[in-house]
């Protein structure tokens, strides 16, 4: 049924384009003289913007809006038009944009060539799959960023020196970020270093730093949380005396309320850390102008919220 809807949407888009609406964008791009890049996620949008500083070689369009969940996002007819008009389409891959696979056929998957040895696996409906949330491993993020730069240089060789300078400067900032994350995790007492979130987005945080993560839900944000998983996580919280669990901006907060109720029924207490300024940013950066609207501020925000509440 979903597939049918997608095909219908694509057909409609073709009809709309044929009627002339789609041509306005092309004309703009020609006037502008810059090639257009369509990127699926806020992470890629941030990477391209960091690299483009002082070059401005491309017009960059973000497809999945900040705050939307890329695991379940389905392209609109306007998104399909954006892809049609783009000279370059960049997406993350590793099945992160799981419902856009068909429309991303002509795109470049930025994370697809990350080494299998460096990638974590996770469980999805009883099967081991590659964990797509690589961005919480800063080293992998650097590799992905290098991939993005290579694509930009290939298509705009004049910008190479500036792109390289921007990349080097940014890598220094990422090293500072890495140190900051380590330091803040060190502040948390050993036995409290357990982060419970609604979905499995933080596996690479656990792989990179001295902290554990647990999510009562399987891989994707659209799977139903079974009572069994909730019960197991509640037991873990009570046994380890964990005093806070976290919500994410892209996942329904009700799940954590339910978990809190089960913890209380077991005689424990746990705070659900939520609210605009306190929700963790996992699968999307914040909308522009809000805390966490860049990769670095997102990571600092998350680690501050975690470290402040797990004391
Ligand atoms: Zn996710």
TrEMBL record:
Subcellular location: Cell envelope
Keyword annotations of the record: Metal-binding, Signal, Transport
UniProt cross-references to InterPro entries, sorted A to Z: AdhesinB, Bact_metal-bind_prot9, Lipoprotein_PsaA-like, ZnuA-like
Coiled-coil segments: none
GO terms classed as biological process: cell adhesion; metal ion transport
GO cellular component, one term: cell envelope
Signal peptide: 1-20
Main localization, broad class: other
Cited Pfam families: ZnuA
GO molecular function ontology, one term from the record: metal ion binding
Family: Belongs to the bacterial solute-binding protein 9 family.
Protein name: Manganese/zinc/iron transport system substrate-binding protein
Organism listed in the record: Lacicoccus alkaliphilus DSM 16010
Top-level taxonomy: Bacteria, Bacillati, Bacillota, Bacilli, Bacillales
